[in-house]
């Protein structure tokens, strides 16, 4: 399985518009972070997790030719706002399968009503097929089992996903024990870590490291990173040997 980090930033991205914070002014490419998303490929299959406002730019950068579906973690704009730009894929391939929590689908229907309109559709509108995800049902994508993992983003129930030896969990503040069980023997864990200071709805660095120590994957990658985390090069120095700060366009094999 190949995993391409399309974006590794928190909701505003880095640089933050208008910011003169040193990390926002950094010349290190690894300090430039689009909104979070990953592209996952195996055999002929091609899926992304989340579709934020940088989706178009991300698809152009990774030269993605075909997309078989989108898995959503939750409805916040930094994870969904790019959905209008699925149109080139829809025109070539037909309706785009989307996989999400029932509440996320309801939210998308409200915010992108024209996509879900059944009558008098604008001819150029994107179209999707809906697959509702719930915490207790696995589903299959191109021959692989996908395990939804319910995590808490503050008070919001959101999903992470495990596919074989790979798990992706962003915007995490708390993981119930029964859900953490689903991560047993996972080899590669991607987990969000916002910054060093605590935050109400996100793991900070220490909380993410504690969770990694509990799950014990072979390798872990941190994502959904704020400029307040610091310079990539300096933060990476401080991490345990098997923990890596992800960066945009990092590609790994699982
Ligand atoms: Zn987010």
TrEMBL record:
**What is a single molecular function from GO for this protein?**
hydrolase activity
> Pfam families from the xrefs?
Lactamase_B_2 (PF12706)
InterPro entries, per database record = Metallo-B-lactamas, RibonucZ/Hydroxyglut_hydro
Record's keyword annotation contains Hydrolase: yes
Q: What positions belong to coiled-coil segments? A: none
Superkingdom of the organism of origin = Bacteria
Segments forming domain Metallo-beta-lactamase = 35-224
UniProt keywords, alphabetically:
Hydrolase
Question: PANTHER family from the xrefs?
Answer: HYDROLASE C777.06C-RELATED (PTHR42663:SF6), HYDROLASE C777.06C-RELATED-RELATED (PTHR42663)
What protein am I looking at?
MBL fold metallo-hydrolase
């Amino acid at each position: 399985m190949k995993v391409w980090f399309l974006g590794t930033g928190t909701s505003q991205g880095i640089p933050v518009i208008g910011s003169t914070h040193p990390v926002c002014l950094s010349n290190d490419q690894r300090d430039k972070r689009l909104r979070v998303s990953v592209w996952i490929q195996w055999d002929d299959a091609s899926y992304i997790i989340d579709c934020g406002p940088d989706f178009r730019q991300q698809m152009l950068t990774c030269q993605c030719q075909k997309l078989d579906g989108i898995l959503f973690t939750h409805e916040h704009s930094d994870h969904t706002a790019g959905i209008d730009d699925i149109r080139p894929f829809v025109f070539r391939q037909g309706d785009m399968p989307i996989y999400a929590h029932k509440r996320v689908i309801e939210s998308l229907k409200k915010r992108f009503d024209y996509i879900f309109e059944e009558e008098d559709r604008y001819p150029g509108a994107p179209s999707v097929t809906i697959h509702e995800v719930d915490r207790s049902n696995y589903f299959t994508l191109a021959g692989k089992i996908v395990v939804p993992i319910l995590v808490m983003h503050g008070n919001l129930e959101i999903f992470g996903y495990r596919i074989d030896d790979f798990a992706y969990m962003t915007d995490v503040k708390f993981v119930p024990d029964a859900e953490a069980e689903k991560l047993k023997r996972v080899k590669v864990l991607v987990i969000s870590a916002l910054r060093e200071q605590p935050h109400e709805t996100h793991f900070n660095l220490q909380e993410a490291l504690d969770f990694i120590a509990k799950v014990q994957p072979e390798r872990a990658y941190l994502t959904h990173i704020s400029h307040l985390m610091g310079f990539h090069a300096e933060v990476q120095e401080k991490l345990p040997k098997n923990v890596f700060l992800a960066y945009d366009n990092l590609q790994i094999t699982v």
